[in-house]
Specification:
alpha/beta; TIM Barrel; 11 helices; 12 strands; globular; binds S-adenosylmethionine; binds iron/sulfur cluster
C-alpha cells in the first residue's frame, strides 16, 4: 500500500494529531461477551446505521484529511452483509497506509483469505480463554473451537501481524494469563491484555469486583516469563513488552491504571454515524446527518470533521465503583 504524504489536518485543542480512525460497521454481534453486552440486547434498525456507501465515503474523507490508518470493527464486523466488499473498497483508497480489523474470529475460517486479498494487513482477534466451557460462559454464544480454527486460517493467510486481545476479569479468567501468553508464543503471534472499561450496563458481574489490573497481570507473567519493556510508540494505546527467548510482544491496555489519553491519536465512527471524539466521553458529531444532507459537498463534510476536533476531550475518567456514565456498550462504540 502506498504511503500517504497527505497533510495531517485533524488536530485537536491539545495539539494532538488524529491520524487513526476506528470504524464500527455494525453494532450487531453473534457473541454476547459478558463485559461488552448484556444478555438481552436491542440492536439498531437498519435505517439508522450508515450504509456501506456512506461508510466508504466517510473513510475517503478521513484519508484526504491525513488519516493513514483505519480499523474496521463493531459489533462483529464480519456479520454485516457486504463487509468484505466494503473492506476491499476501503483497502483500495489511494491515501490509506494501513487497513486493519478487530474480530471475534467466529467467521475467520471462511474469510481470512478474502480479508488478506482486501489489503487488510493486521488482525486483532479476541480470545479471553482457552477453556471451552469458560469461553461459552464469557461469550455466552461463542464456540472456542470455531475461533481457534479461525486463528489458524488467519495465520495461514499470512497477515503482516496478528494480535490476540484478551479482556481479563478477576476470578473468571485471570488465572489463564500465562496459558494465553504461551498460546501466543506457540503460534508466534502477539497478545494484548485489556482492563475492562465501564461502557454500558452489564448484568453478569460487578466491574469493581472483577477489576484485574495490568500490573497484576505483569506480576503473574513475570513468574513464568522474562518481560522486557519496549520503548516503542505504536498507533494504539498498548504498552508493549518483549518475552525473552520468543519473537512475540505482549501489550497492556490499561485505561484505569495507566491512562493513555495524552498520546491519543484516534477517533471513532459508530455504526450509526456518530463521530465519537473519545471512548470515555459522549462528545460527538453527527456525520450521518452530514452525509445524508444533499446540500453538503465532500468538502463540507471534511470541514465538519476538521471542526469536530475542537470538541475532543482531554481525557477519559472511569470510575468502576459508580454506575457507568457512558451508557453505550463497547459494541456500539467500536473497540
Ligand atoms: N467483535 C469484535 C471483537 O470482539 O474483537 C470487535 C469489536 S469488540 C467491541 C473490540 C474489542 O473490545 C474486543 O477485543 C473486546 O474484547 C473489547 N471490549 C469489549 N467490551 C469491553 C470492555 N467493556 N472493556 C474493555 N474491552 C472491551
Ligand atoms: Fe461481540 Fe466483540 Fe462485544 Fe464480544 S466483544 S460481544 S465479540 S462485539
Amino acid at each position: 500500500m502506498p504511503h500517504s504524504n497527505q497533510p495531517k489536518q485533524l488536530i485537536d485543542r491539545f495539539g494532538r494529531v488524529v491520524d487513526y480512525v476506528r470504524i464500527s460497521i455494525t453494532d450487531r454481534c453473534d457473541f454476547r461477551c459478558v463485559y461488552c453486552m448484556s444478555e438481552d440486547m436491542t440492536f439498531l434498525p437498519r435505517t439508522q446505521i450508515l450504509s456501506l456507501e456512506e461508510i466508504h465515503l466517510l473513510a475517503q474523507c478521513f484519508t484526504e484529511l491525513g488519516v493513514g490508518k483505519i480499523r474496521i470493527t463493531g459489533g462483529e464486523p464480519l456479520v454485516r452483509r457486504g463487509a468484505i466488499e466494503l473492506l476491499q473498497k476501503i483497502g483500495s483508497l489511494p491515501l490509506l497506509n494501513e487497513l486493519v480489523m478487530t474480530t471475534n474470529g467466529s467467521h475467520l475460517e471462511q474469510s481470512a483469505e478474502q480479508l488478506k486479498q482486501a489489503n487488510v494487513s493486521r488482525l486483532n482477534i479476541s480470545l479471553d480463554t482457552l477453556d471451552a466451557q469458560k469461553f461459552k460462559e464469557l461469550t455466552r454464544t461463542g464456540k472456542l473451537n470455531i475461533v481457534l480454527k479461525g486463528i489458524e486460517s488467519a495465520i495461514k493467510a499470512g497477515f503482516k501481524g496478528i494480535k490476540i486481545n484478551a479482556v481479563i476479569l478477576k476470578h473468571r479468567n485471570h488465572h489463564e494469563v500465562v496459558d494465553l501468553v504461551q498460546f501466543a508464543i506457540d503460534k508466534s503471534i502477539d497478545i494484548s491484555f485489556i482492563e475492562e472499561m465501564p461502557l454500558g450496563l452489564v448484568d453478569s458481574h460487578n466491574r469493581a469486583v472483577t477489576y484485574y489490573s495490568s500490573d497484576q497481570i505483569r506480576t503473574d507473567l513475570a513468574k513464568q516469563f522474562d518481560l522486557q519493556h519496549i520503548n516503542e510508540t505504536t498507533a494504539g494505546p498498548s504498552d508493549y513488552y518483549h518475552i525473552q527467548g520468543s519473537a512475540i510482544k505482549v501489550g497492556f491496555i490499561s485505561p484505569h491504571s495507566h491512562n493513555f489519553c495524552s498520546t491519543c491519536n484516534r477517533v471513532r465512527l459508530t455504526a450509526e454515524g456518530r463521530l465519537l471524539l473519545c471512548l470515555g466521553n459522549e462528545h460527538s458529531v453527527d456525520l450521518k446527518a452530514a452525509v445524508r444532507n444533499p446540500a453538503n459537498t465532500i468538502d463540507d463534510i471534511k470541514k465538519i470533521i476538521i471542526d469536530a476536533m475542537q470538541i475532543k476531550p482531554e481525557k477519559h475518567e472511569f470510575d468502576l465503583n459508580e454506575q457507568p456514565i457512558i451508557m453505550r456498550h463497547m459494541s456500539a462504540t467500536g473497540g
